Amino acid sequence: MTDGTKPFFVTLPNRAFIHIGGAEAHHFLQNLITNDMELLTAQPSLYACLLTPQGKFLFDFFISSDGDDYLLECEGGSRAEELLKKLTMYRLRSKVNLSLDNSRLVYVIFGTDQPADPRHPALGHRTFIKPDMEEGPYETWDRLRISLGVPDGSRDMEIEKATMIESGIDVFNGVSFTKGCYIGQEITARMHNRGLAKKHLITVKIAGAPPAPGSDILSTDGHLAGEMRSSCGDIGLALAKDEYKDRLAPIR
């Protein structure tokens, strides 16, 4: 356990890497993802998603430069394998090489001045090299993430159903509204410009044992107000209808 007065790190479970190389790697990614690859000229990594043509969530990930190539950090296990298959499908005849490493670990360092997570500066510095310092519990990071309202991939965003705006991905620097077309761009931009989202991920307090993800949450007057997502201790994320977000019943 860390005492909170000096730098420490936590290990993030279930992460993987996809290496993307080739002469057309930059163009290939720019046409697919929700964010702008040009950001990598000014920052070490970016956060983005891959969507369905209808603008629904499929995968989220971080992209960083790896020499002339790119390293994509994503959810691990079968989710990484599914993402690799999806990218391979979109590759067609592009001059792009894809390979999966499902065995590497990701660490988050707190208490240093190294570049922060692109979603929120409080979320620490992500690295693929194990730090030589004290290790803290994963729950330290997970609770902080939830307190900030930051979704964690498919734990919080329902595959092929969640949208970028209701999930707050635009707020957490995962969507570019200026770069031009990408898969799902038209619907994402329309929801943003017209304020069409009627529900959003919010941080909620939990009394007692955390409800299972997907459990219904109710308003104080008994109406269905939304669904639980991930949780850590006495807080969690819930996808709540905007009309009920200020009058939720105690979540148990």
CATH homologous superfamily designation of the largest domain: Probable tRNA modification gtpase trme, domain 1
| Annotated CATH topology of the largest domain | Gyrase A, domain 2
Which bin fits the share of residues in helices? 10-25%
Q: Kindly estimate the percentage of residues that lie in beta strands according to DSSP.
A: 25-35%
Question: What is the CATH class name of the largest domain?
Answer: Alpha Beta
- Estimate nothing, just give the exact number of structural domains: 2
Description:
The model has no long low-confidence stretch (mean pLDDT 95). The chain contains 5 helices and 13 strands. The strands form 3 sheets. Strands 3-4-5-2-6 form a 5-stranded antiparallel beta sheet, with helices on one face. It has a 4-stranded mixed beta sheet with strand order 8-7-1-9, with helices on one face. The protein is of the alpha+beta class and 252 residues long. β3 (45-51) and β4 (57-66) form a beta hairpin. The chain is globular, with a radius of gyration of 19 Å. It folds into 2 domains: 8-155, Gyrase A, domain 2, CATH 3.30.1360.120; 198-252, no CATH class. It has helices spanning 25-30, 78-91, 138-148, 164-167, 185-194; strands spanning 8-12, 15-21, 45-51, 57-66, 69-75, 97-101, 106-110, 125-127, 134-135, 199-205, 216-218, 224-232, 235-241. It is 18% helix and 31% strand.
